[in-house]
Amino acid sequence: MPRGHHDRIGDILAAIADIRADTAGMNLAAFEKNPTVIRSVLYSIGVIGEAVKVVDSDFKAAHPEIPWRAIAGIRDRIVHEYFRTNTRRIWDVLQDDLDPLERALKVAIDDPPSL
């Protein structure tokens, strides 16, 4: 049986928690100097992007406030152009985009379907 969108959203929320745990107490300079953490964060972003790609299209359509395509696009850039990954851009994603994404996903999964 395929995993439902709640499972995939759970995967995304778990990956966000992993990123937070791996970067706790870090600033940009510390992040840039730690290739192990960078790889871990890139992996977690990849997980987020893969999960986004398989979330049901009806669920995505019901929640257009979540930038589904942009999230998948970041995953694609990391996976296909890993040699050009800009750690500053990744850091900006962590600082600017994780909290709003997490909040929007929590609202989306708590939102009852329209009849």
| Count of distinct structural domains | 1
**Main pleated-sheet profile:** none
Question: What is the percentage of strand-forming residues?
Answer: under 5%
Helix share of residues?
Answer: over 70%
| Helix/strand order | HHHHHHH
Ranges where pLDDT stays below 50 over 5 or more residues in a row are: none
Rounded to an integer in angstroms, the radius of gyration calculated over CA atoms is: 15 Å
The assigned structural class equals mainly alpha
Total count of helical runs of at least 4 residues: 7
- Shape estimate: globular
Q: Return the average pLDDT rounded to an integer.
A: 88
Extended strand count? 0
State the end-to-end distance. Answer: 25 Å
Describe this structure in words.
With 115 residues, this protein is mostly helical. The chain has one domain. The protein is 75% helix and 0% strand. It has helices at 5-23, 28-32, 35-54, 57-62, 68-80, 87-96, 98-110. The longest helix is centred in the middle third of the chain and has 20 residues, at 35-54. The mean pLDDT is 88.
Blueprint of the fold:
Layout lengths: L4 H19 L4 H5 L2 H20 L2 H6 L5 H13 L6 H10 L1 H13 L5
Features:
globular, 75% helix, 115 residues, mainly alpha
